[in-house]
Amino acid sequence: MEHSRFLFEKPRPQKPGFFVSTGFFILLVNLLCIQKLMAQNKDSIFITKPVEVEAIRHIDRNSSALTPVSIISIDELKNTGAWQVSDGLAFTPGIFIRNYGGLGGLKTVSLRGANASQTTILLNGVRLNSSQNGQFDLSTLPASFVDEIEVMRGGSSMMFGGNAIAGAINIKTQKGSEGNALTTHLSYGSFQSSLLSVSGNLPISDSLNLFAIGEFSGSKGDYSFDSEQFGEIERLQRSNGDFKNLTGLAVVQFPFLSLQWNAQGLYRATNRGTPGAVLQGRVESSNARLQEYDRLISLSADKEFSEGASLTMLLSGRGNTMVYDDPDMSFTTNKGISTFDNNEYSVRSVLRLFLSKTLAEITAEGILAELSGDNLQPGVGKYINRIQAGIGGRVEHEIHTDSLLKITLHTGIRFDHFSDRGNSVSPLLGAGFSFFKNLLIRTQWSYNFRPPTFNEMYYLNYGNALLRPEKSHSFNLGAVWQPVSFSYTEVELFLIRTSDQIAGVPKNPVQWSAQNIGLVIS
Questions:
Q1: Element (H, E) at 72
Q2: Residues 427, 165: Cα–Cα separation, whole Å
Q3: By the 8 A CB rule, do 215 and 244 touch?
Q4: By the number of CB atoms within 10 A of the CB, which of 34, 175, 249, 310 ranks highest?
Q5: Of the ranges 47-51, 403-407, 439-443, which one carries the lowest mean pLDDT score?
Q6: What residues contact residue 428 under an 8 Å CB cut-off, 6+ apart?
């Protein structure tokens, strides 16, 4: 009885004061570092070209020798004819896109066989994984916004915190060109699919630049498909599968307080039909609709120092509003309408120190996640939040170098505290052996985690507040051979061993519940 009482007990929302204090502390440390490093360099003033600012290069190419990393360039995206980011990712090694139907169908990523909530998705360093369901719908991000995509394969909680059991994907958006520019693009395809994008760039001065891009895409989605009903194959046509998506991005780059700043704002509005499965000749939820609205604002600053040090700061806020309307469920308490608002605020800093044979990196992060809605468990109310604070460090060091062999060690550890799930520790240990400068053997082990999402803990008739975080051991052994500069061969062996995996388990013929189901190996 005590467990049942706790399961539906109203969780105590955490006061944001701790998050605000953490954010101010991180910013204060950043400013002190800047002041200290600038003081050390006051006698060696020099002028450099403007720094191209990006919101924290999480996936550092200097580390790609020790960790499998794939880079998808803007030219490669164009060559695939991609409309959505998911189209370009589908050709990347180790990635499978789960496509739930047509242009407007939900599209999530499976990296190395893991589920969508076990891969961290970033937009210019800003986390996109929803704290509500742990996923990000790749169908809502236009490929025309993208400049480059970086894919890191392998457990990476030491670098990114929770959700990075399988790895991480950082999507870098365009920041504009060097001169005045105005570009339009129009496409049309089957099932009345259409796309219109407009972008423009306006340089105000050598250090101030404005860039904006907007896109509208839509489709009727009325394609035909085969369905087996009562032992016979029937040809059906999809209905209520239409999709409309409007997305806009604005980027401003400017100098302030001896730093180069990058401000970005993204807005998205989506309206789509969400028909369910065909059961016994009948389409479930045949009239259901889903409307979503996304808002994202980020502000980053990057400072490089002459003593081989750099500091990056990132502030971000993201909001998502989701309205699900199923007229066929109008007899329910909420008249078939379910509304959720999910907001997340984060502050993050990365300090890097480059020595002759050593790279040291220290990361500090604070996150406040909030969810309000009308379909939460009894006793929870209509609001819940989670506060996360994390700090970590890593070191890459060349312990041996000669003409035949170079040996590099990579080690790191991160500590995370969650207001509702306690503490997590994420260590990493790896090594790379480079022979004759064209053959690399690398190995890596990491211990990773994923906290339960709000839906898994608190969603009506499904959530389970007693869930434990998923924990995972990730092993990687690989080789890269590059006999000539324009060609290479890469082989990777990996193992992901996840305990306390969270999945939906049926409680009765009509009700499911989130449970820790045990060990899963990929």
A1: strand 69-73
A2: 12
A3: no
A4: 249
A5: 47-51
A6: 155, 156, 158, 159, 394, 410, 411, 412, 413, 444, 445, 446, 447
- Rg of the chain taking only CA atoms, in angstroms: 24
**Phi, psi for residue 356 in degrees, rounded to 5:** -60, -45
What tokens were used for 20?
């605000």
Q: Report the distance separating Cα 135 and Cα 342, nearest Å.
A: 13
pLDDT of residue 432: 93
What number is the average pLDDT over the span 346-360?
A: 92
The structure tokens 């909030």 sit at 370
**Element holding 503 (H helix, E strand):** strand 487-508
Looking at residue 32, its pLDDT comes to 52
The three-state secondary structure class of 320 is: strand
Report the DSSP beta bridge partners of residue 70.
151
Rounded Cα–Cα distance for residues 439 and 422 (Å)? 43
Residue owning tokens 């898994």: 456
**What's the pLDDT tens digit per position in 141-168?**
999 999 999 999 999 999 999 899 999 9
Separation CA 147–CA 497 (nearest Å):
34
How many Å separate Cα 351 from the centre of its chain? 21
Q: In this predicted model, which residue has the larger pLDDT, 48 or 479?
A: 479
- From the list 425, 397, 393, the residue with the least C-alpha distance to 410 is 397
Query: Nearest 5 degrees, angle CA 178-CA 152-CA 143?
Result: 45
The backbone torsions φ and ψ at residue 84, rounded to the nearest 5 degrees and listed phi first, read -120, 155
Q: Which residues have a Cβ under 8 Å from the Cβ of 176 and sit 6 or more positions away?
A: 201, 203, 209, 210, 211, 251, 253
Q: Assess whether pLDDT exceeds 60 at residue 13.
A: no
Cα–Cα distance, 264 to 247 (Å, whole number): 13
CA-nearest of 117, 21, 92, 86 to 453 is 117
CA 143-148-151 angle, to 5 degrees, is: 105
Q: How confident is the model at residue 493 (pLDDT cuts 50, 70, 90)?
A: very high
Which among 451, 459, 442, 435 is positioned nearest to 396, based on CA atoms?
A: 442
Tell me the two tokens of residue 75: 């030219």
Q: How far apart are CA 3 and CA 14, in angstroms?
A: 22
Sign of CA dihedral 25, 27, 32, 33: positive
How far apart CA 366 and CA 410 sit, in angstroms, is 25
* The pLDDT of residue 111 is above 50: yes
- The three-state (H, E, C) secondary structure of 389-431, written as one string: EEEEEEEEEEEEECCCEEEEEEEEEEEEEECCCEEEEEEEEEE
pLDDT cut 70: percent of the chain above it:
86
C-alpha to C-alpha distance for 21 and 318, rounded to whole angstroms: 20
**HSE-up (13 A, CA, CB side) for residue 477:** 2
